[in-house]
Amino acid sequence: MTIKDVAERSGVSVSTVSRVLNDHPDVSDAVRTRVLEAVRELHYVPNNSARDLVRPQSDAIGLVVRGVGNPFFSAVIRAVEEAVSRAGYTMVLHQINTEDNELLAAASLARAKKLRGLILLGGCFDYTPEQTAALDIPFVCCSFTNSFGSLKKTAYSSVSIDDEAEACRAVEMLIREGHRKIAVLLDSTCDHSISELRYRGYRRALERAGIPLDRSLVAESGDFDMAAAYKGTCRLLERTRDFTALFVISDSMAVAAMKALRDGGLRIPEDCSIIAIDGIDMSNYTVPTLTTLIQPQAAMGAEAVRILLDMVEDRAGNRHVRVDTTLRLGGSVRSLN
Amino acid sequence: MTIKDVAERSGVSVSTVSRVLNDHPDVSDAVRTRVLEAVRELHYVPNNSARDLVRPQSDAIGLVVRGVGNPFFSAVIRAVEEAVSRAGYTMVLHQINTEDNELLAAASLARAKKLRGLILLGGCFDYTPEQTAALDIPFVCCSFTNSFGSLKKTAYSSVSIDDEAEACRAVEMLIREGHRKIAVLLDSTCDHSISELRYRGYRRALERAGIPLDRSLVAESGDFDMAAAYKGTCRLLERTRDFTALFVISDSMAVAAMKALRDGGLRIPEDCSIIAIDGIDMSNYTVPTLTTLIQPQAAMGAEAVRILLDMVEDRAGNRHVRVDTTLRLGGSVRSLN
DNA sequence: TTGAAAGCGCTAACAT
DNA sequence: ATGTTAGCGCTTTCAA
């Protein structure tokens, strides 16, 4: 079942069929109708491989997600897919593990699928120009920027929150409520990633308030998953219970931390307040509801697509967009004032 | 950068390069080494479109997931991807919404990507032979079976738990602990899906124990997501509080239900016990930990791939595998005895 | 063991 | 407005 069969069936040449199929103007209505009819009768479906082989460029946009099953990404992925299809493009989703190198994955995906552009979700923060050299298509980093790398600002696009500032804002909220002994739960203080950035925000907030940094209140889980977060919180509790609030760098980690605090005999928020950043669905259903700074996940996904397509279609150059978070006032923070 | 460049670079013909790339036997070691070297130096990546165009069949296995962001699927997807790649195949993931028809999506994906086989995750339970006729490749239903449809058992494969029996088991556990007034939270009693099956199990357990069905204790949320589950539970509470336990058909719904119960002033498990089925990561971190029947998600994904590849490679015909759940004893069930 | 050459199904010049 | 035809990059006969 090829274009040739359709051509025979409708009594025209293959090029005419091709024209009809690709919405080219120079086809008479009569012929167009006839061809479309043959297509329907024959249940003809174009062979994409043949198409891709011959077309200079595809309509594929890649979305490389690092960290399978990270709940924060779900809503973003949905939004990206929707925006991509609405624009008439196809989304190619590729999930990789945290250990994997997303630039390598992206480069081979780009080659394999002839991608027009790329969105990276949850990547590293320290790309070098050498590493991105293999990527000869525009790309936008979604939910992160190249904070620790040496990429020129003009070499890529991004849409993200100001991680350091937002973390600072979260901690300052705790301080405003009278908390002085504030612990922090993070992946690592120096992972060159979101964790390190938000840790900086934590320190900045303390500094501004004149609170000295107490290293014993810094809990490193070594990973972003809930199991690690739970254990990290337990270790913190073994070390000290001399804190009234906990700032967690992500919602999902915060959910696990809440559990650890409760299992450790602490009531939330009576004995320990907790605040986080992300705003995933699940943290709406903790008891008490998690107080958190919500990232506008859907808007970020849509914006990433907008930026990318502006580049792909040469409407605009690269750009970097900062979005704001929204405070969700749950019941997990108690005022000491 | 084509196979031709590699051929020139290594001083052989394109066919030889092709042979090396496809692990054909009749190539001298010397030539093979030389070609591989050229490949590396040139960073050559085969053009998949050209490959697919010429090859009678691809190495692609499709995974169609219905219900984006359903946390239960994450672990399954991971397992499928791993098993597929380990077997030397490529996984093509396609997510669709609950409203979308996965058979249509699957059929067009199969055609477009020349799929060898298909795994359906979270599909419908009522396929008819006519609907699956378009699918001319083997497929296996993962985490569900065609319980309400008219498919011949030999027309497809499946790996799933015995939803009705497991639901019955969960409810019987509540009964064994002395509960008689047991509510149930589900999507719908007649959605021809997992919800209906597990509802049957609920009724069977009551029946066996001689407990009459009380329709006022049946809460239909109308959807599987947490927001719907929360609202459904609230409506239940408005109607009646005369129950000591709640069986929820899925973990994620149970998490939302727990919140609703708490918000309604009920303590868990003192005022209301709760049990569910699924065993997703998140339900490990509720307070108290959710008591649930864990589906072996990773094993199910791996098994689905095994079955499918057995069919694809003609090692075996179709088969239906039933797996067992494991009880996770959380703290959400209280004994009345 | 290797090479030459014929397509795979499609699009896009180029002709008409 | 429509047809003819040359490839796209690759695999695979068939010959050598």
3D structure, described in words:
The structure is a homodimer of 337-residue chains. The first copy, chain A, is an alpha/beta fold. Chain A has 3 domains: 3-44, lambda repressor-like DNA-binding domains (434 Repressor (Amino-terminal Domain), Orthogonal Bundle), CATH 1.10.260; 57-161 and 297-324, Response regulator (Rossmann fold); 163-294, Response regulator (Rossmann fold, 3-Layer(aba) Sandwich). Helices cover 42% and strands 17% of the residues of chain A. Chain A is built from 12 helices and 12 strands. Chain A has helices at residues 3-10, 14-21, 29-42, 48-54, 71-86, 102-113, 129-132, 163-176, 194-208, 226-239, 251-263, 297-312; strands at residues 60-66, 90-96, 117-121, 139-142, 157-161, 182-186, 218-220, 245-248, 273-278, 291-294, 320-323, 326-328. A 6-stranded parallel sheet of chain A has the order 2-1-3-4-5-11, sandwiched between helices. In chain A, helix 2 packs across helix 3 (29-42) and helix 5 (71-86) crosses helix 12. The longest helix of chain A has 16 residues, at 71-86. The N and C termini of chain A lie far apart (76 Å). Chain A binds a DNA duplex (16 and 16 nucleotides) through residues 2-4, 12-16, 18-19, 21-22, 26-28, 31, 46-47, 49-56.
